[in-house]
Amino acid sequence: MKKKNIWILILLLAIAIIGFFIWQHYQSGSDLPEGIVSSNGRLELERFDIASLYPGRVEEMLVDEGDEVEKDQVLALLSSTQSESNLTAAKADEQRARQLVSQARAGRAQGEQTVARAEAEINARLEQQKVAKLELDNARQMRREGLISPAELDKRLSAYNGAVSAVQAARAARSEAVAALSRLDAQISEAQAGVEQAKAQESAAASANDDMSIRSPKSGRVEYQIAKVGSVIAAGNKVVSLLDTSDVFMNIFLPNEQMSSLEVGDEARIVLDGVDMVWPAEISYIAHEAQFTPKSVETQNEREKLMFKVKLKLPAETALKYKGLLKGGMTGMGYVRTNADTAWPENLKIKLAEPTSQPESQANTDPKLETTGQS
């Protein structure tokens, strides 16, 4: 009987201790000075998914879940056979277009020589015409003086008319040569346009080929490998899910009377369970409408069913410095000041130790919360 009573006493004592800690947890906000309010929450990291611009088969995954990656780091490789073929074809098209330009320019050089010869021919024919005209004028004078026969005059006139026709023919040849030059110039312009088009196609093919290497747009931590080696994905399909280790925040929920004086940009504090640090933060978002309180949020008054979400965000440089420690799902408390003139108490002044790979006390984490934080 005495043994049974001892066990009952131990059980009651354990219940009392548990009750005390629960009461202390619920009353943790009541010890705060006036002008500071708090609410519990869980740490979250912004998530972004990396997708492929083009369809293809996954040849290699270069990162594992949990890896830290840098901006422009290659995360995965897709089969590039088709894109490489397109790039080779585009280069061949550019080479053919450049050959057409060279041929057109060579033809123009010949055309310029033809024009030069035509101009020389015109000058020669003009000299012949000038001589023929002098001889004709001389023959006419001599005929008036009766020194030559009419047949001789007709001969000189025919020679002059032939010289005039030769000048006209030379000028016509020059006009045709100049017209040919214009056509060659048009061909050169068209060929050069073909080169530019081929270069654009080559650039697009090279870009598409490069895009078969899936790169990270920014630094972060790999959350999930969505695609697996050997799988065939369509354009726009997700390949890797990353967590932005510079965008760490906690959503807390406050009743109307506590959040009405808050503003975006106000200073805040975050204290994580099991981590002896006080983190700096600021209010980055305040909901415009109240919502039903999530089940994970503990309130001192069960009647407070509608609450306003307030997002507390850590500075990016702090989040990056402690990225090895900060994990999505870590539980803790968020603190804000309803009165900006209220000084932070000693236990809420910023306190950060040098970052280590893991805190001595394990924090309560939930991997499901390392997901996109919706404002």
Automatic annotation (TrEMBL):
**Stretches that traverse the bilayer:** 7-26
The protein depicted here goes by the name Putative efflux pump membrane fusion protein
Q: Tell whether Transmembrane is among the UniProt keywords.
A: yes
Q: What keywords would UniProt list here? A: Membrane, Transmembrane, Transmembrane helix
Gene Ontology terms: cellular component: plasma membrane
**UniProt region (Disordered), positions on chain:** 350-375
Is the Transmembrane keyword given for this protein?
yes
Q: Which Gene3D superfamilies does this UniProt record tie to the protein?
A: 2.40.30.170, 2.40.50.100, Helix hairpin bin
Polar residues: compositionally biased ranges: 355-375
Q: Which InterPro entries match?
A: Single_hybrid_motif
